[in-house]
Amino acid sequence: MDAEERRRVILEATRRVGSVDVGKTAADLGISKETVRRDLNLLDAHGLVRRTHGGAYPVESAGFETTLSYRTTSQVREKSRIAAAAVELLGDAETIYIDEGYTPQLIAAALPRDRPLTVITSSLAAAGTLTAVESITVLLLGGRVRSATLATVDHWATHMLSGLVIDLAYVGANGISRQWGLTTPDPAVSDVKAQVMAASRRRVFSGVHNKFGATSFCRFAEIADIEAIVTDTGLPASEAHRYFLLGPQVIRV
Description:
This protein starts with a helix and ends with a strand. It is α/β, with parallel strands linked by helices. α2 crosses α3 (33-45) and α8 packs parallel to α9. The chain is elongated. The longest helix has 15 residues, at 3-17. 42% of the residues are buried. The mean pLDDT is 94. The protein has helices at 3-17, 22-29, 33-45, 68-71, 76-87, 102-110, 124-130, 155-162, 187-199, 237-244, and strands at 20-21, 49-52, 55-58, 95-98, 117-121, 136-140, 144-146, 151-153, 166-171, 175-177, 181-184, 200-206, 218-221, 228-231, 249-252. The strands form four sheets. Strands 6-5-4-9-12-14-15 form a seven-stranded parallel beta sheet, with helices on both faces. InterPro entries: Carb_Metab_HTH_regulators, DeoR-like_C, DeoR_HTH, NagB/RpiA_transferase-like, WH-like_DNA-bd_sf, WH_DNA-bd_sf. This is Lactose phosphotransferase system repressor. Keywords: DNA-binding, Repressor, Transcription, Transcription regulation. Residues 3-58 form the HTH deoR-type domain. Repressor of the lactose catabolism operon. Galactose-6-phosphate is the inducer.
């Protein structure tokens, strides 16, 4: 195969499996490790993958997004720690927004049950997690349901949000970078997230370390717009400090 086809095969494998290893990829394709490294470096430069020591993982983009079912099997321990730490930031909030995605779903599950809360969410999964809790009132945003994430989008959702004032929003993103802020692949999702940012007094971003430095298609917030970032210790302390200098508290768990 030529170089372009080879890189396409490597990218497809990265997206299908969730990551690739240089050595295994070289053996599978019958090429040298150095060739795989060059291909991955080029894919990284084009914003399609992020390089790691010995391999790469895919960056979500307008043409590729992981499904909720995949996210529930990836980095679960890290996401559980992040969710627990994010809930510690609840403070005296009475109205809370829970974003789509698996980490926000874990935040929903970790919310306290001993105080009245109103939770607004676009996530069918998060709503389902909370509907049996007597102390929590759940408001599910209307709209078109995206099959990949089981979340609602479009003008029904943004119209509902436009009439609300929310104490605290737990927001996610497909990518977060110091240059481009918080990004997501789908314009319809970006519209909902932007409206959430506008409607909320406080905003907390929660996400695993491999979202950092990644950039997707649609930007909906700047780093300075959020109060706190909660992530895992896979994000180096030096990089966490660079985000801290832009405004938010950075918590690594």
